[in-house]
Amino acid sequence: MATEVKVPVLGESVTEATVGQWLKKPGDAVAMDEPIASLETDKVAVEVPSPVAGVLGEQLVKEGDTVNVGAVIAIVEAAGAATAKPAAAPAPAAAPAPAAPLAAAAPAPAVSSAPAAAPVPTAEADFAGAVTLSPAVRRLVLEHGLDPSRIAGTGKDGRLTKDDVMAAIASGSAVGAPAPAAAAAPVASSGPGRGQERVKMTRLRQTVAKRLKEAQNNAAILTTFNDVDMTAVIAARTKYKDLFEKKHGVRLGFMGFFVKAACMALKDIPGVNGHIEGDEIVYNDFCDISVAVSAPNGLVVPVIRNAESLSVAEIEKTIADFGKRAKDGTLTMADMAGGTFTISNGGVFGSLMSTPIINPPQSGVLGLHRIEDRAVVVNGQIVVRPMMYLALSYDHRLVDGREAVTFLVAVKNAIEDPTRLLIDL
Predict the structure, then answer these.
(1) Annotated active-site positions, please?
(2) 45-49 and 66-68 beta bridge pairing
(3) Torsion sign, CA atoms 317, 143, 47, 100
(4) Residue 404 to residue 396: CA distance in whole angstroms
(5) Which of 63, 56, 65 minimizes the C-alpha distance to 36?
(6) What's the Cα-to-Cα distance from 181 to each of 117, 122, 131, 144, 193, rounded to whole Å?
(7) pLDDT in tens, 1-45
(8) How many helices and strands (H and E) does the chain possess?
(9) Do residues 60 and 72 lie in contact, with contact meaning Cβ atoms separated by under 8 Å?
(10) What's the mean pLDDT when you consider all of the chain?
(11) Distance of CA 117 to the CA centre of its chain
């Protein structure tokens, strides 16, 4: 009995995806709900589970193909049926017969397109062939240029896990993948150091590029700056970080303070928390804060819902969970839907100053930057203080300059005197 594997519902307004990777080959045994393929949508990677237990039969689409929601991408055969069919034809050798065609089917294209069979396979072919990797593990192996077949897997059926790769990297036992280097060498035609590599943009990267350009084309983006003395927040964090982590099970960072400060400022300047729809302005009486998080395939912005009603501990827990799931590739469409205002922390990468681009249809984004000691004048005296530049990019069609500056000053005041966050001042 054959069962169709269909593209699942991907989220609101998302109707198609790209086949990023097959996690199982034809002939592989699959368990119910075991991922057999990874799809790339506009925002996240989505794994497609097998609806039944059995053996993966025909793959109806190739990696890189675009598929619609509900489309059939593969067939899963019942375990008994899958072995009985091929056994009937070659009666003298019932057991080995199915294995031979299946083994030949996968490598055949590679052999015909490249005579030198051993060094030719690319990293992509290796991952989709002899070693089955999840999207998160696959990205990690690619980032570090490792040979996954040389790392022992501890997952189900010997499957490689993220922890396996990290442990191999930490111990120094990870072995680099030689194939990509061998394949790339002939590209250089004018001497050393002039090789090129062409990699198709992921659907996520294409969408990011499209949306950022649309934001520049459609909104009147302007950026205003200020700086903030981080002395008080650093002192509070230093004093309470151990107790905070012991009680709440999460580290006390700076983002919790900035999210609370932004929510307080958004209440005072509601235009920054609104957006334009046609000829109307939509004002939100809640703060759904989008937090920019770096993921292997690009920047994603999961949303902290009703951040204005959350404690600093709840905010830090949410952000920590987003960061972990972004690296693992397990963020969902629902995690990133909506959002009324965005905070982007380029300081973790060392950025001194930037002009962030708003996340449509939002009207504002707060950019945080690195903290560095600078000489400032306090009460007529030159002192050294840990300072950070703040940047607010906003849609000037909706937010006036006075409102933007007032918002940024409110954030600055709350950070420099965190007591304001407790008494809503």
Answers:
(1) 396, 400
(2) unpaired
(3) negative
(4) 9
(5) 56
(6) 15, 9, 19, 13, 13
(7) 788 888 887 765 577 788 888 988 898 898 888 888 888 776 677
(8) 14, 19
(9) yes
(10) 80
(11) 35
Strand (E) positions, 256-302? Answer: 275-277, 280-282, 289-291, 293-295, 298-300
- What does the block give as tokens for 234? 């650093």
CATH for 122-185 is 4.10.320.10
One DSSP character per residue, 386-420 reads EEEEEEEEEETTTS-HHHHHHHHHHHHHHHHSTHH
Domain 221-423 belongs to what architecture?
2-Layer Sandwich (3.30)
User: What does the domain layout of the chain look like in residue ranges?
Assistant: 1-106, 122-185, 221-423
**For residue 424, what are its two tokens?**
């809503």
- In sequence order, the 6+-apart residues with CB closer than 8 A to the CB of 72 are 4, 5, 6, 60
* Main-chain dihedrals φ then ψ at residue 260, nearest 5 degrees: -65, -40
* pLDDT band at residue 425 using 50, 70 and 90 as cut-offs: low
- Residue with the two structure tokens 């952000």: 319
Domain 1-106, CATH number (from 3.40.1400.10, 2.40.50.100, 2.40.160.40, 3.40.50.970): 2.40.50.100
